[in-house]
Specification:
76% of the residues lie in helices and 9% in strands. By secondary structure, the chain is an alpha+beta fold. A four-stranded antiparallel beta sheet has the order 1-2-3-4, with helices on one face. Keywords: Coiled coil.
Length: 169
Amino acid sequence: MKRHSILKLASVFTFVFCLSCGSTEKVITPEGEVYELKGSKFYSNGEEVTATLSREEKSKINQILEDRLKLEKEAAKRKAELEEAQKKAEAARKKAEKKQKALEKEIKAKEKAREDFFKAQEKLKKKTEKYQKRLDRGDLSQDDIEDWKKRLKDLEDDVKKAEEKLSRS
């Protein structure tokens, strides 16, 4: 009994605290009656009915209001939790997209390094064949041979650089 009265007192205190904020709350009873609470006064259809309501009716209306406010608070809390979860999911999605783009960029860089290596190899091969063909025909002077050797050396260096770049990626 003592616990019940403490609970009632706490309920009334909570209700009075809510009302002291100057808020106006509407309450619909299970019977379909609409009450508007302003402060500690009850209104129905714009008329004050505080004096005509029994203590039990007031308590019932207050309990309905408390229950509704509690449910609204729970709903707001759940909404906030859902919004937070949604924010986290969005952040995770963005992080995954960023990682995906980085991987795609890395793959593209590797493919480019591979292509550059094969191009450098092919160019060296063709220039070497051309040099050898002209050398075999005797079309090259001593100065031309030196120029060709320098060009081929540069192409070999290009192949080595491309190979190093390929192995790094």
